[in-house]
Design a protein that fits this description.
Elements: H1 5-15, H2 41-56, E1 60-73, E2 84-97, E3 101-112, E4 115-128, E5 132-136, E6 141-146, E7 156-161, E8 167-178, E9 181-186, E10 189-192, H3 195-198, E11 206-216, E12 219-232, E13 235-250, H4 256-284, E14 286-289, E15 291-292, E16 296-297, H5 300-311, H6 317-331, E17 332-333
Helix pairs in contact: 4-5, 4-6, 5-6
Length: about 350
């Protein structure tokens, strides 16, 4: 039986229990810490260079372990689900580095019935001393969040995007060294459900979370402290606390070239898609786009499929870009003014 790249991607993702799309965070922020004092210029430069090195260390080829554990139930009638562990091989490439802005693109490499194929995965954008970042603001909407001027210095925003470059979550934090180990930690942020949870249609519908990144001697780790929240009797309540640890271990024993070949064929298309998402967000001060359990956003199948068709030679890049712009325009609108994210 012949399988298209999209068929293989969906089969592989199902076998991997959906962990491939498990990353997330987004926020209407709580600035838990005050302004960061300005140091001497030499110290400032050294700290900035060290921050950049920690971010750039997340690029490379890795064996990844995804480990999700619901641990503490906060409602008497909720039973935590069994721990879920899976993994895969992932290529992370620096696709933009302008000094104060670094963009990392993740591409999984899967295998099914002897066929090796790429899966464009999440993207993370890092910006130093940002004026704004994009925050999750409730079901189907994200808003541009202003950062007070006194809170910008010394901090980096991290914005995470779905496989089709639609928004997922954003946060603000500082790279710190504790016990000799660099670590970036966000404030408490909101994020939509990851695919692994959304496909189960649970009682909760969003996460309130802290996001951490740390380089390790063998790669890096991504920690998440996820409070899974949902509506009950008109109030947003916690259902269960989840510990997530995603471990990236340096590894070159897989076909990373397959990911790089995919990116070489589709990078111009994806650059145009990113620019279109950015334009819509900039115009409206945020964005509304439908969330979809299987694909993250409703635009996922169309935008990912067009990239597959480019690589397969079924469509020219300019034609695919035009169709992608149409898909984004038809699926998006300005966000609502009032935020739905409150805890009482």
């Amino acid at each position: 039986m012949q399988h298209t790249t999209r068929d293989l991607r969906l089969k592989w993702m199902a076998l991997a229990t959906g962990a491939a799309l498990a990353f997330g965070t987004a926020a209407i922020p709580a600035f838990a810490h005050g302004p960061i004092p300005v140091k001497l210029s030499a110290e400032e430069q050294a700290k900035f260079d060290a921050d950049r090195a920690s971010i750039l260390a997340m690029a490379g080829t890795f064996k990844v372990k995804f480990d999700f554990q619901e641990q503490t139930a906060w409602q008497p009638d909720y039973t935590p689900i069994a721990p879920k562990v899976s993994g895969g091989h992932e290529v992370v490439r620096v696709i933009e580095d302008s000094g104060k802005r670094i963009v990392l693109q993740h591409i999984l490499v899967g295998e099914h019935e002897g066929k090796i194929f790429p899966i464009k995965h999440w993207r993370q954008d890092w910006v130093y001393a940002p004026e704004t970042y994009l925050a999750y603001a409730g079901p189907n909407q994200w808003k541009t969040q202003a950062v007070p001027e006194k809170m910008r210095h010394g901090r980096w925003s991290q914005t995470v995007w779905q496989t089709d470059d639609s928004p997922r979550y954003g946060g603000l934090g500082e790279w710190e060294v504790q016990g000799g180990i660099p670590r970036w930690r966000s404030g408490w942020t909101w994020r939509p459900l990851a695919r692994r949870d959304a496909v189960r249609k649970p009682v909760y519908d969003r996460y309130h979370a802290i996001n951490r990144h740390q380089p390790t001697p063998s790669g890096w780790v991504h920690w998440q402290d996820n409070m899974k929240m949902g509506m009950k009797d008109g109030k947003l309540i916690p259902y269960v606390q989840e510990m997530t640890l995603n471990t990236y271990t340096k590894f070159d024993g897989f076909n990373a070239k397959r990911a790089d070949d995919y990116w070489a064929a589709t990078k111009d298309y994806w650059a145009a898609v990113r620019a279109e998402w950015d334009a819509v967000i900039a115009k409206n001060g945020g964005i509304m786009v439908g969330e979809e359990a299987q694909n993250g956003s409703v635009t996922g199948p169309k935008l990912m499929g067009l990239a597959d068709d480019i690589e397969a030679g079924k469509i020219k890049t300019p034609d695919a870009i035009a169709k992608a712009k149409e898909a984004i325009a038809s699926a998006t609108s300005a966000p609502k003014m009032a935020s739905a994210l409150t805890i009482k």
